[in-house]
Design goal:
Elements lengths: L9 H9 L3 H23 L9
Helix pairs in contact: 1-2
């Protein structure tokens, strides 16, 4: 995870989610979305962007 989310405990968020805290789901999404974007950018690199017809 990146530095902006380093203080977020994923285990705590999952525990809260199991307890019915829906805000925890939003926090989990925010953490993992940033990670997903980082991985996607690394994988795609300088691949050309295609325009749909």
């Amino acid at each position: 995870m990146n530095d902006s989310n380093s203080d977020v405990s994923i285990s705590r968020l999952f525990q809260e989610l199991k307890s019915g805290n829906h805000q925890a789901a939003e926090e989990l999404w925010a953490v993992y979305f940033e990670c997903l974007i980082t991985v996607a950018r690394k994988q795609l690199g300088d691949a050309p962007i295609r325009v749909a017809d």
